[in-house]
Write a structure and sequence with these properties.
Strand content: 25-35%
Radius of gyration: 20 Å
Number of strands: 17
Number of helices: 11
CATH architecture of the largest domain: 2-Layer Sandwich
Structural class: alpha+beta
Oligomer: single chain
Number of domains: 3
CATH class of the largest domain: Alpha Beta
Bound molecules: adenosine-5'-diphosphate, magnesium ion
Length: 360
């Protein structure tokens, strides 16, 4: 099992969504092939990849055959059962490793890991029953947010505990699952840092963007974020510390809240052990995109220059907004990225557009 790929080698990607698709598109110019593993027959990444396997993450025989056919395995979403990685690790190098997946799959483990590094997270408590919830609300107070520990995304699996809400109803709403209650932070801005770690221990961080959400789904990322140099440096230092703590190879994203109670400070919201929607601006704003950087890292190749040559506003095209694609193209400098998804659904990420203003 070689740790350094050669041109012509194959990257195995678990997950076939738009992130897998854009990883495969970034691997191609480097002379690398991709093999996508995904249960969904209509996976957007299949359209641009050399090979694909349609099988679920419990299919041990399919996982073994996949692992044997590739030179490194990576993943584009964090909800892959760790048992799948255990089967794969008998046959292939997995980057980023199991620890990153395990820590980030569970909001409680994730918060504890980050807090143990001396990095601020929101006050939180584990909640496994209605009685726990009542106790936790007694301690943390309202407003707070009840979140399922696992499988949440785009605000799914979350209930705001405001002054009015009945706790039994809230508990029902999350479906009686292992949860955490966290204090609702009086944030003034949401930002994220994308950090890349290489097998030799090198770390490079992209510039910091401001993320704006609509209906808890990322709508735009604006680069650069309107924050001080100090705060940007602090965000990058947090990215580096998390990469080091997880022995991380690949691109990692960290979502942060800016809180201003006199002086602005940072609180980590969550991490994702993968390329991230808030890094899509790098495709057209940087010398090397987050996707190329991830491929370089997991291939054991030198990281590229993550420097930014343009200011960018990234706008997600969600649901039927994708039908505006022609209007987007009316601006000749706008860079349109569509994900090739067959079916348009409300709330589904269908594409994005990068609006670019080169730095003179
Ligand atoms: P998801 O996994 O769905 O992205 P997040 O924990 O990132 O879940 O929550 C989605 C959004 O909800 C965040 O981007 C932020 O806008 C808001 N949010 C989540 N947690 C908090 C919090 N503790 N305080 C304030 N806002 C929050
Ligand atoms: Mg989030």
């Amino acid at each position: 099992m070689s740790a350094t790929l050669k041109p012509g080698d194959t990257v195995g990607i678990l997950g076939g969504g738009q992130l897998g698709r854009m990883l495969a598109l970034a691997a191609a110019p480097l002379g690398l092939r991709c093999h996508i593993y995904c249960p969904d027959q209509q996976s957007p990444a299949f359209q641009v990849s050399d090979q694909h396997t349609i099988a679920n993450y419990e299919d041990i025989a399919a996982l073994a055959a996949f692992a044997r056919s590739v030179d490194v395995v990576t993943y584009e979403f964090e909800n892959i059962p760790t048992t799948a990685l255990d089967h794969l690790s008998n046959h292939a190098v997995i980057r980023p490793g199991r620890m990153a997946l395990e820590v980030s799959q569970d909001r409680l483990t994730e918060k504890r890991h980050i807090a143990d590094l001396g990095i601020a997270v929101a006050d939180h408590m584990a909640v496994s029953s209605l009685a726990d919830l009542e106790r936790a609300v007694g301690t943390i107070g309202r407003p707070s947010i009840l979140k399922t520990r696992r499988l949440g995304y785009d605000g799914k699996g979350q209930v705001v505990i405001d002054r009015q809400i009945d706790l039994a109803m809230a508990w029902n709403q999350v479906g009686d699952q292992e949860c955490i209650l966290e204090a609702r932070v009086p944030l003034t801005m949401e930002i994220s840092v994308l950090a890349a770690g290489s097998p030799d221990g090198g770390i490079r961080c992209f510039d910091i963007g401001e993320n704006r959400h609509e209906n808890q789904i990322l709508k735009t990322t604006v680069i650069p974020a309107a924050i001080s140099q100090n705060l940007a440096d602090e965000a990058r230092a947090i990215g580096e510390a998390i990469i080091q703590s997880l022995d991380y190879v690949g691109v990692l994203s960290v979502e942060l809240f800016v809180v201003d109670d006199g002086a602005p400070r940072l609180i980590v919201n969550e991490i994702a052990p993968r390329v991230h929607n808030s890094g899509h601006w790098t495709m057209d704003g940087c010398h090397v995109s987050q996707f190329e950087q991830h491929i370089r890292a997991i291939a054991g190749w030198p990281l590229g220059d993550q420097g930014r040559h343009s200011d960018v506003t990234m706008v997600n095209l969600i649901g039927d907004e994708v039908e505006t694609w022609q209007n987007q193209l009316a601006d000749p400098s706008a860079k349109l990225h569509l994900y090739g998804k067959g079916e348009t659904r409300a709330g589904r990420k269908m594409g994005h557009v990068n609006l670019i203003k080169p730095n003179s």
